[in-house]
Amino acid sequence: MKTAFSRTLKAPWQLIVRGVVLSILATAVLVILFALLISLLDLSDSVIHTVNQLIKIISIGIGVCATVFPGSDKGLLRGALVGLIYMAAGVIVYALLTHQELTASAYLADLLMGVAAGGLIGLLRAKAV
């Protein structure tokens, strides 16, 4: 089912950009809510790390759902692209803001998680009817 808004975005790259932007906005909202929760509770580092990973996956899911519609084609590819671009943007922002250097394998793991999550969600979303 296409909405009026989705029909105005015809080019696949427009849908992918919309998905990435919505993923970033979702992350901002979820991180702010989680920061408020952290200020109220004494959470361990492992809980914070786990919730941060969940926030990334949920945000990718929101972006992919804005990019891939039920019954559409190339859900796997478009979802993977949303995940990859979103995670690449996150890695760059993290590196610039924290001035910390993670290992290449840590950056690669984040990128691969984004590709895998986005691709899987996109595939499932495209096959949904």
Characterize the main sheet.
Answer: none
**Strand-pairing-aware structural class:** mainly alpha
The tally of helices reads: 5
Radius of gyration, taken over Cα atoms and rounded to an integer in Å: 16 Å
The H-and-E topology, N to C, reads as: HHHHH
Mean pLDDT: 90
Query: Alpha-carbon distance between the termini?
Result: 9 Å
What does this structure look like?
The protein has 129 residues and is mostly helical. It has one domain. It is built from 5 helices and no strands. It has helices at residues 4-8, 12-40, 45-67, 75-98, 104-127. α3 crosses α5 (104-127) and α4 (75-98) runs antiparallel to α5. The longest helix is centred in the first third of the chain and has 29 residues, at 12-40.
Give a concise summary.
With 129 residues, the protein is an all-alpha fold. The chain has helices at residues 4-8, 12-40, 45-67, 75-98, 104-127.
